[in-house]
Amino acid sequence: MEPKWIEWAQRLQAIAQTGLVFTKNPFEQERYEQVREIAVEIMSAHSELSIDPIRDLFADQAGYATPKVDVRGVVFRDETILLVKERRDGRWTLPGGWADVNDSPGEATVREVHEESGYRVRASKLLACYDRNKHGHPPFAFHIYKLFFQCELLGGAPASSIETDGVGWFREDDIPQLSLPRVTPEQIKRFFDHLRHPKWPTDFD
């Protein structure tokens, strides 16, 4: 579970963002901007970030506030799982990233796997739809849904990208240090369990 402060900051930011969409009253706009500033101060006080970058990040958000969507490809080969090494933190994760507008979730996953690993795949089953706040990830500014698709390997060859500088296949008992903002050891274990039980339904929440 996320700490309460991140939940408070996310909720206040969402209230402010949505309120600024619908209100035309300048006094109400000012109040919503004050609410957003409280979210900024909470986030800064409990993280290592200074106020200005957080303020800019929140101010860039427009429209009705909804969760962001992160997609990840779960690709198995001979009882090993495909992982990529993130340039940002030097740790390993399932290939994936933000879903783009006009991509279906499966299409976004296939694209991300190819861009980050060099492998061509086909999305075959939605393994999990998780609320990021409930699965032990480090705090993040926004509320996120994480979609994990099992993918069938079609071809390709390992290749790095602007975001990754390593591609590898790992056995369940030899998983490297993971990039916890993106995937957790518990999630990797759960997906190996899904591999052993292909009739299991999709996990959610």
CATH class of the largest domain: Alpha Beta
- The CATH fourth-level homologous superfamily of the largest domain: Nucleoside Triphosphate Pyrophosphohydrolase
Order of helix and strand elements from N to C terminus: HHHEEEEHEEEHE
Mean pLDDT: 96
Radius of gyration over C-alpha positions, nearest whole angstrom: 19 Å
What percent of residues are in strands? 25-35%
Number of helical segments? 5
Shape: elongated
- pLDDT < 50 runs, ≥5 residues: none
Q: Find the CATH topology of the largest domain.
A: Nucleoside Triphosphate Pyrophosphohydrolase
Number of strands: 8
End-to-end Cα distance, whole Å, is: 12 Å
CATH architecture descriptor text of the largest domain: Alpha-Beta Complex
Major sheet size, sense and barrel closure: 8 strands, mixed
Percent of residues in helices: 25-40%
Domains, number: 2
Quaternary structure annotation: single chain
Question: Structural class per helix/strand content?
Answer: alpha+beta
Written overview of the protein:
This protein has 205 residues and is of the alpha+beta class. It folds into two domains: 4-59; 68-204, Nucleoside Triphosphate Pyrophosphohydrolase, CATH 3.90.79. Helices cover 36% and strands 28% of the residues. Strands 1, 2, 3, 4, 5, 6, 7 and 8 form an eight-stranded mixed sheet that branches. The chain starts with a helix and ends with a strand. 31% of the residues are buried.
Structural features:
205 residues; alpha+beta; Nucleoside Triphosphate Pyrophosphohydrolase; 28% strand
